[in-house]
Amino acid sequence: RFKNRYYGNVRESSIKDIVVVDIDSRSVSKLGKYFEWPRTYLAKTVKNLAKKKSKVVGFDLLFNQSRFADDDSIFCENISNAGNIVAGYNFQSEDRYSFIYADTADTEINSIINFQNNGFYAKTEDILDYGSRNIISSANSSGNVGITSDDDGVIRRISLFKKYRGKLYPSFALVICMEYLDIGKEDVVFNDKKNIILKNANVNGNKRDITIPLDSKNRMLIHYKGTWKTYRTISFYDIMKNRLGKKTFKNKIVLIGSSLRGLMDLRSTPIQYLPGVEVHANIINTIIKNDFISQIDMFYIVLIMLILSLIVNLLVTSRLHMLFSTMFVIIFSIAYYKLSFYLFNNENILLDITRPIYSIIFSFLVAYTISYYNENKAKKFIKNTLGRYVPEVVSKEMLKNPDLLKVGGVKKEITMMFSDIRGFTSYSEKTDPKSLVEFLNHYLKEMTKVVKQNQGTLDKYMGDAVICFFGAPLDCDHPKLACKSALNMIENLENMRPDIKNQTFRDIKIGLGINTDVVTVGNIGSDELFDYTAIGDGMNLASRLEGLNKYYGTTILISGNTYKYVKDDFIVREVDLVFVKGKVKPVRIYELIDFKDGKLFTEELKEKLEIYNKGLNLYRDGEFADAKSVFVEVVEKYKDKTSELLIYRCDQMIADPPIDWNGVWKMEGK
After folding, report:
1. For a designed S-S bond to 415, which of 318, 427, 478, 511 qualifies (C-beta 3.0 to 4.6 A apart)?
2. Which residues pair with 456 in a beta bridge?
3. Taking the CB of residue 215, how many other CB atoms lie within 10 A of it?
4. Are the CB atoms for 56 and 82 separated by under 8 Å?
5. What φ, ψ does residue 352 adopt, rounded to 5°?
């Protein structure tokens, strides 16, 4: 199917202007071995073809000296009488090591036509082998039957002339064309490395010029029309026995050759192995039908390769996913392949396929390798940089989706956490800068490690403060992870105390504030410099909660929004319902104490929380005296700072009862 499509869906025996007479296996089986045939067989064939008024008969055979002189004379007589026979000869190169020496004199045979060399390039040959002088002299004309293949052994082109002893000798096929088109030697015009013009060619009774395009080595591309027997093919045996149709050969070109393997004349072509006679038929058909293939100049092929390479590089280095860019490259290659088919089938233009396709593949591999190297290098840098701020799982996701690193933000519910060292200013005044920086580096490293272990994103450091959030850029169970991080940070602080070299910092305490809310999160800043951060009122509330730890005597405070997500997993007690500065709605505040299965969750803690909650309910109901007595009990038993604050408030309420008490306390400071 490929061959038929590429070579025009030509059916067997569909080209009838050229008839091939095949010395085939049938002829040998009927007449005996070819090398034992008397020349009378060939003489009969020539005589029969002459009767059928064939215009040109060409022998793609070399006739060596025969021991049957009488047979040769009959054969020569029939050739002379026919007056339209083209015989063949061959060239050889000198090989002194094999005692084969170049000819030293010109070959003076009238049927062997030649041309004066006017600077036209042709390969120089040393020896002309014409076989039987009598037979070739009897022919009307003769030509070189030799066909040289390309470097890979495939015959794609034909050198229409060879140089021998300073003169140009035409090929067998060209001589047949000259005979068929009534062209004399004077009508052949040579244009070196451009073309050969056959002037005044008789094409179906009309005179016109035929221009044969040549490449840089003066070779013509052969336009193969199909596989073996595309041209009408008849067995030699049938011709010899005069089994001929009335119009089969009339005014036709007849080529006599052999498809027998033993005669060593099977040639490798772009289609398949073809007998040499069929190759000559394709050369002749290309010329007489003016069916030449135009080959794109190498300059334009190189230009096409550069353009294709540029397009491939742009595709690979674009922001397209690798799968899509690969698909585009494949589609592009197929499109180029299809274009070459179209140009060949419809316009007889040969567009080089191999080099451009190789350039596409090579460019793709090189561009992909460079892109892969640069991308990995950039990813490694980004990963190392991001690794200082976000956990590895987050940095990997950001590398998969680089759009997360663009300037811009989205509205998203996340959980924010602020932590701060209590009284850090006074601590810093008691130590030297070196010790201060050494401690801070150690402390911040441990706290950041906890944040990253719980899929948190480090927003920034502000002195001793650690600001982070959970749930961006990756979705996760952010309220629980934030609370877990807060408890882990307290635990890590206790574990690191023995390693703190400076005694000044061994007794430090920290406070943490946690809030869950919808805020704007993303890269905030300019194209040159930006931070991946969160902004919004929810962020401010987390900061307020962290600061309120000093007021309530607590360590970790969380908002009501966070509480509703974590109440089943952690030990939490309600602390207050307050108006925080900057908020128009009251905020319910809770203290985060421990995990539900944590070591602090003891019977003593349960009892404390029961008593405390009883006092808080009385406080909310405005029963300040009763609430005070309950809080006093909590303080006496458990030394609870929050209860001490509420006792102070109850005293204020008893001394100056509020008019419309709704359980909400207004905070004056931040």
Report:
1. 478
2. 470
3. 14
4. no
5. -55, 125
Phi (first) and psi of residue 312, to 5 degrees: -60, -45
CA atoms of 49 and 93, how far apart (whole Å): 35
3-state helix, strand, coil in the chain (%, to 5): 45, 25, 30
3-class SS of residue 340: helix
Kindly report, residue by residue over 479-519, the tens digit of the pLDDT.
999 999 999 999 999 999 888 877 778 889 999 999 999 99
Q: Residues in the chain, how many?
A: 670
Give how far Cα 129 sits from Cα of 95, 144, 279, Å. 14, 10, 21
Residue pair 490/500 in contact by the 8 Å Cβ criterion: no
Number of helices (H), then strands (E), in the chain:
20, 29
Q: pTM for this structure?
A: 0.58
**Residue 442 and residue 499 in contact, taking contact as beta carbons nearer than 8 Å:** yes
Beta strand 510-525 with 408-421 is antiparallel
Closest Cα to residue 61, out of 48, 77, 73, 75? 75
Distance in angstroms (rounded) separating the CA atoms of residues 171 and 554 = 107
pLDDT in tens, 438-485: 899 999 999 999 999 999 988 899 989 999 999 988 889 999 999 999
**What is the rounded distance in angstroms from the CA atom of residue 658 to the CA atom of residue 653?**
7
Q: Tell me the torsion sign for CA atoms 299, 304, 310, 316.
A: negative
Per-residue pLDDT tens digits for 400-424: 666 655 556 789 999 999 999 998 8
Token pair recorded at residue 425:
């200013």
Given a contact cutoff of 8 angstroms between Cβ atoms, the answer to whether 592 and 487 are in contact is: yes
In this structure, what token pair is assigned to residue 372? Answer: 């892969």
**Homologous superfamily of the 403-596 domain (CATH):** Nucleotide cyclase, GGDEF domain (3.30.70.1230)
Domain boundaries, the chain: 2-185+217-292, 304-386, 403-596, 602-670
**What is the C-alpha to C-alpha distance for residues 36 and 570, in angstroms, rounded to an integer?**
109
Cα angle 295, 301, 305 (rounded to 5 degrees) comes to 150
CB burial string 276-300: b at 16+ within 10 A, e below: bbbbbbbbbbbbbeeebbeeeeeee
